[in-house]
Design brief:
The protein has 3 helices and 13 strands. With 275 residues, the protein is mainly beta. The protein has 2 domains: 187 residues, Photosystem II, cytochrome c-550 precursor (Porin); 36 residues, photosynthetic oxygen evolving center domain (photosynthetic oxygen evolving center fold), CATH 3.30.2050.10. An 8-stranded antiparallel barrel has the order 2-4-5-8-10-11-12-13.
């Protein structure tokens, strides 16, 4: 009998703990301290708007507008894999992110301009606009890339005098080199330091087999991104939606061919008038 009482008390305690843990209340990040956020992953998430946010933000010609605190949170990663058979087409294979809590872009700002043809253009200026990331594919292959929105210029396809749930920005951005000019590869080779070629093979430095690894390059490539606005709060100027980005992967300073990486996720920002 005594054991039954102990077991019942233990089960009641477990049930109360589970109930308390499952009680999810929405708490603003501004109300949390540094210790509350540390090692929780909250800092890597973007703010979201309610599903009922279906407002409109008017964009008047001649006035200056900016997007502040733009945040992009990736949620899906894909890498284009070449098919085994030539009859098949290359397809994007979903991968798993290895870099967990440092994948989002945040505090990005840019301008919104009304063009002569009536379309709107968003131009990215600065912010935390790049993050190195690595994706693990099902076969075990790891693909590093620099997730970024640097110098993005996106334009709406149709005329628009406001930002609403039908606003879509599409455009290109620059993808800087994943490695710096002084990065040393396993053979001690680099663009601005280290060796010019593998020390063990000095007589074959010009061999085409080793040329790509010996002759380093530091170049920026292009990516493309679409920002699809799905939620708008006209009173606060907040916008949110989904994005899809396609960009090249790292090349180890030119030693490898870049692979095509696709990233999907959500974004959040605030539209402000400078008038």
């Amino acid at each position: 009998m005594r054991y039954r009482t102990i077991i019942a008390s233990f089960l009641a305690l477990c049930l109360s703990v589970l109930t308390a843990c499952s009680d999810s209340t929405d708490v603003s990040r501004s109300e949390l301290t540094y210790d509350d956020i540390l090692n929780t992953g909250i800092a890597n998430t973007c703010l979201e708007l309610p599903e009922s946010s279906r407002g409109t933000i008017n964009i008047e010609p001649g006035k200056s507008y900016t997007i502040q605190d733009l945040c992009l949170e990736p949620r899906e990663y894909f890498v284009k894999e070449e098919p085994v058979s030539k009859r098949q087409k290359a397809e994007f294979i979903e991968g798993k992110l290895l870099t967990r809590y440092t994948s989002s872009l945040d505090q990005i700002q840019g301008t919104i301009d009304s063009n002569e043809d009536g379309t709107l253009t968003f131009t990215e200026i600065d912010g935390i606009d790049f993050q190195p990331a690595t994706v693990l594919l099902p076969g075990g292959k790891e693909v590093p890339f620099l997730f970024t929105i640097k110098q993005y210029i996106g334009t709406t396809q149709f005329k628009a005098d406001s930002i609403n749930t039908s606003t879509d920005f599409e455009g290109e951005f620059n993808v800087p080199s994943y490695r710096g000019q002084v990065f040393l590869d396993p053979k001690g080779r680099s663009l601005a330091s280290g060796y010019d070629n593998a020390v063990a093979l000095p007589g074959r430095a010009d061999d085409p087999q080793f040329a790509k690894a010996n002759v380093k390059e530091f170049v920026s490539r292009k990516g493309k991104m679409s920002l699809n606005v799905t939620k708008v709060d006209g009173e606060t100027g907040e916008i949110a939606g989904v994005f899809e980005s396609e960009q090249p992967s790292a090349t180890d300073l030119g030693a490898e061919e870049p692979e095509e990486v696709k990233v999907r996720g959500i974004f959040y920002g605030r539209v402000e008038s400078n008038a």
